[in-house]
Predict the structure.
Amino acid sequence: MLTDSLHDRALLESVHPPGWRNPQPQGRYNLVVLGGGTGGLVSAAVAAGLGAKVALIERDALGGDCLNTGCVPSKALIRAGRLATEARGAASLARPPASAPIPDFGVAMERMREIRARIAPNDSAARFRDLGVDVYLGEGRFVAPDAIEVGGARLSFARAVLATGARATAPPIPGLADAGFLTNETVFSLTAPPARLAVIGGGPIGCELAQTFARLGIEVTLFEVGAHVLEREDPDAAAIVQRALVRDGVRLVLGAKVLGALREGAERRIRFTAGDAGESTLACDEILVAAGRAPNVEGIGLEEAGVSFERQGVVVDDRLRTSNKRIYAVGDCCMAWKFTHAADAAAKIAVQNAFFFGRKKLSTLVMPWCTYTDPELAHVGISAREAAERGVAIDTYTVGLEHVDRAICDGEDEGFVRIHARKGTDRIAGATIVASHAGEMLSLVTAAMTAGIGMGKLAGTIFPYPTQSDAIKAASNQYMRTRLTPGVKRLFETFLRWRR
């Protein structure tokens, strides 16, 4: 949902131009891509770059969730919230201003729209047309195992990629639909701040937006059914983020069960219980639901194409092939990893396998992810809990940021770097980082895992001083110290005595 602002009109001109005319199909395509989010755009661009004849179909806005309702708008707002908080905290670092600045919600939202419009040409219909892709805007539907119809035109293909993504869903809370609610697909259309916001769901989206809106001056209450937020992460890592949310003014209701919602005039009311407490009621002005997503598999003719799907999405093998061997699927419509970078990587696998009899496998990817709260929480590989469940023996090395000089200087010393290595080796099995820029720091560990570089090589790498990434080297040095066993140390002592 877009506003009628100048920036949103510019966005629309890029991602769904009002005057766009679909091309007339001329013969069979090497590849037809259904869905113009990250997975679809990368599939189309890679295939066209290889010289394939490619068609790309999008019913809504090119760029998908990432550009329009996900990564880009949320990170733009997160930056605004972080700046507002840093300005208020300046008194602890230097001379405070005469008065603490008050965040302007409207300015932050307009900046977000300007940034989104500025980035949009990368995903635009015109750019992909210039790459040699036939771009069709409209509802696409399979009508045969090797054909799709869109706008009355029939497109036959040798291969196809499904990249239809997913959509936000709401839990079955009585009265919620009648009360009205926001999701990530509508919240960025707000032009004025609600005085009180209720957020249902303590996963990454719920935590990021709850903290950001609280930092922008909104009274936020977050409902989470679990014992703590970010339940898929290490409990002590999630606990640091949870403390940050509370510090920024988010009221947490943990162990929550939302019983119902209703609207009374402009006000919404939520009935809930928390733990062993009795029923309570919260009054708010808007409700943001961040509690799940559903794959877009309905109404696109998967039955006619012979493509199997379930409630979780399109069924694919490790090479991303569907039950129709002509058709591959990537991204949120079929994968457990629901990240932009995962869809990007999967699209490259699908195109290679579709055209070159490839044997590339999704399971070989080293997949990082990051929750962009402040501090950020980033993870790659296996956690200690997953290692125990799988029977994988590991050694764990943890360095708290309170021991890292740059983190102390920055006043960002709450967090840690934790690296898991295969037992008795320096081979990295996984890592968790909690830090202000954990996502940036994690890339070094991810690159090491991908390249097969162990902790010994990391310990031997020169890091510029001072950086927060010194924590990664410090963890690697912990591993190196385990090699100096008492027996080895005695040998060194004997040798060095002889050398005196």
